Amino acid sequence: MPSEDVSQSQTPSTGAGVPSIISADLKIVGDLHSNGDLQIDGAVEGDITSRSLTVGESAVVRGSLVAEEVRVYGAVFGQIKANSVTLAKTAKVEGNIVHRALSMESGALLTGNLSRLDTAVGGGARQGTAERGTAERGTAAKLASAAGPAPDEKTDRKSNVSASAAGGSTSSRS
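Request: output the structure for the sequence above.
Response:
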């Protein structure tokens, strides 16, 4: 009988390409921490830290999100802090977004402050410019540019934004 090499596991690896998934029928109360990718399709009441985070269309998250990349298709009630934030047309966010790059599709709803990071998440980032208010994708960038210069270099630039728009594309990159 030939000998078999038992040092190789038959179990699939859980590399960075395979996200952890919180399914639509699951509700979690408590904080989540992951070094990999995380997809939320259910409900989470707590803060989430992950390398990459996707909030699915049926998801509802109540808490802060911190990740290198955040994609929102569902509802988030709390702060989002990430290098890259994408809000799909089905997204509803009530809270502040601290970002280096922000993209919003037409129809995305955002109520809160936008602040631009000077350095990457995880690197002791400080906030740069900010807009405040409610905006639907397409108008926030135009209104933010009308805010004028900051009174002090160390102070965030802020403007009150209350708008609704249809069509177009908004991106903010550093």
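The mean pLDDT is 74.
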